[in-house]
Amino acid sequence: MTDRNPPTSNKQLLIILGIFLALGCLLLWGTLKLVDGLILLIPPSVEQQLGALVVPAYERLAAHSPAQDTLDRLLERLETKLPKEQKIDRNYRLLYIPDDTANALALPGDTIIVYRGLIQQLESENELMMILGHELGHFANRDHLRAIGRGLALQLVVAVFVGDTGGFANIAAAIASDLSKAQFSRNQESQADEFGLKLLVSHYGHAAGATDFFQRLARENNLDIALLATHPAPGDRTVTLKQTIAQRRYPIRDLSPLPATLKAIDKSLLLK
Ligand SMILES: [Zn+2]
Predict the structure, then answer these.
(1) How many angstroms separate the alpha carbon of residue 201 from the centre of ligand 1?
(2) Which residues in the chain come in under a pLDDT of 50?
(3) What is residue 233's predicted lDDT score, i.e. its pLDDT?
């Protein structure tokens, strides 16, 4: 009897340790889930406060031009198709930056950046609307807040929901520096693509142009494009989008031409 006791208590100890470990993991997992859930409840105004720390740097590069007016008008048209909850407390705006970077991005606080280099790559209005819809998707899914580190996210949640203990400014500054290098996950990117596709279809009544730009990128293998550095492989995006279009039986009709003010943007004409 006495010989058998020690191994039994070792086994019991192991079981207890295992239970504690499992409980610890569960607690950690629960906290992360809770933070994720609470992030989605953070009001857009908090995100706009964060955006106010990042947006001015881009505002300085923006230039007023006919292209800006056209882009504003297109974004407005797309906004009317947004689900109701995505219009509350939002302040969407677009900044056109005359720079050869071929990219578009969403800054926290509802600002979309579109570079001249991207417009030069486009062949239809539909392609542009798909890209704008994708960026609106990042706002809808609160991707900026979800992209910040867990530690900072937890601090932000505490500051917003438990009460600010004077630390918000510090947290915001840390988050702003985090956001300048933030990259969204593959999953976030495909969710934004799906959101963009839905908007595209509700705007035009069909899905033509949804994949054209990505398809061209994949074909041309143009590695110089900034958009490729921050987004999943365009070939994969095309495949997923085409599957969704087929599953939902979205019709494909004629493309709308790029508005004249955007078509006029040609490297040779506009280099200042
Ligand atoms: Zn994206």
Answers:
(1) 19
(2) 1, 267-272
(3) 85
Between the CA of 133 and the centroid of ligand 1 the distance, in Å, is 10
Beta bridge partners of 95: 113
For residue 140, what are the CA distances in angstroms to 162, 199, 215, 234?
Answer: 24, 12, 25, 22
Residues 6 or more apart from 196 whose CB is under 8 A from it?
Answer: 130, 131, 132, 133, 134, 135, 136, 137, 210
Q: How far apart are CA 20 and CA 184, in angstroms?
A: 34
CA 136 – ligand 1 centroid, Å = 9
Please list all protein residues whose beta carbon sits less than 5 angstroms from ligand 1, which is an ion: 189, 192
pLDDT digits (tens, 9 = 90+) for 212-266: 999 988 887 665 677 777 788 888 899 999 999 999 999 999 999 999 999 988 6
Residue 95: φ, ψ to 5°: -115, 120
